Structures are given as C-alpha cells and as structure tokens.
C-alpha cells in the first residue's frame, strides 16, 4: 500500500501503541499488537447466505482470509474515499480482514490521554469498546475487533475458511 503511516506523538512502550483509522467521520483505534498488516482492497469472493457485513473471502499470499466491513457491522455510513483499506488482524489465531475508510496513524497515547470505557446506555452490546483517548481535540474510541463479532459472524468466518480449505 502506498500510504505512509506516521507515528503520532507519545513515548509509551509498544504495548500501548494503536493503529488509528477512520470509519465514516469518526476515528477509532485497535492495539497495534493485533495488526499483522494493512493492504489495499483486493478482489473479494462473496459467500452466499452470510451477514451483509461479511464481504467474503480473499487470497493473501496463498492464505484464505475472511473479510468483514466494519462500517456495515457498526452501522456507520462509509465515507467515499480512495483511501479504503483492509487491516489484517490476528484474532485468537484466526486472520481476519477488516475494511475501514482510511488508515490515519500509529499512535502511542500517554496514560494521561487514556480513559476507561465511557458509560454507554444502549440496547446493543458495546463490549467491543475498550476505552477512549484524546488526540488533539478529538476523542478516539479504542476497539476490540474480536468482541465486535457475534456468534453468527464467527460461524460465517469459520465456515467460509473451511469451505475454502
């Protein structure tokens, strides 16, 4: 991918580094330790009878990887951009491709910038939000990608990967 990812200020250790990305008009971040790589969107083979946010499978250097659209999963209106990318995540020893609008930076927020998960009153599960940090004047939600997946998603990923094998 030709996009350069810059390191944002902060002197925290590698366990406290996050990959910042955009979904719609908001910024989110996931722990850098769960990211294997970032790639441009390749050809994706759709799988019938799967949730709408499950886009299908892709071939990455001979490995079959399931791909989800995190914007659709979280019901966020996508931003039409040429910067759309796929983050290849390592989730419980399974590789998963996650489509996002844009990759913004690698950030190392200080302890003072990090906050616990805010109190969220919702009828939907929000356990995938693990915290928040302040970046400039914007709040960035920290996500646990594995917790965004429900049982139906895990079943679709498992069956798609086993069909391709």
**What share of residues are in beta strands?**
35-45%
Form type: globular
Q: Could you spell the SSE succession in H and E letters? A: EEEEEEHEEEEEEHH
Name the strands of the widest sheet in spatial order: 1-9-2-3-12-11-10
Describe this protein's structure.
The protein starts with 5 loop residues before the first strand and ends with a helix. With 165 residues, it is mainly beta. It has one domain: CheA-289, Domain 4 (OB fold (Dihydrolipoamide Acetyltransferase, E2P)), CATH 2.40.50.180. Strands 1-9-2-3-12-11-10 form a seven-stranded mixed β-sheet. A five-stranded mixed β-sheet has the order 4-7-8-6-5. It is globular and about 45 Å long. It has three helices and twelve strands; from the N terminus they run ββββββαββββββαα. A hairpin with a 2-residue loop joins strand 2 (18-23) and strand 3 (26-31).
Task: Give the tags.
OB fold (Dihydrolipoamide Acetyltransferase, E2P); mainly beta; seven-stranded mixed β-sheet; 3 helices; 165 residues; five-stranded mixed β-sheet
Brief write-up:
The chain has 165 residues and is mainly β. The protein has one domain (6-164): OB fold (Dihydrolipoamide Acetyltransferase, E2P) (Beta Barrel), CATH 2.40.50.180. It contains 3 helices and 12 strands; from the N terminus they run ββββββαββββββαα.
List the helices and strands and how they pair.
Elements: E1 6-7, E2 18-23, E3 26-31, E4 35-40, E5 54-60, E6 63-69, H1 70-73, E7 85-91, E8 94-100, E9 102-107, E10 114-116, E11 129-135, E12 138-143, H2 145-148, H3 151-164
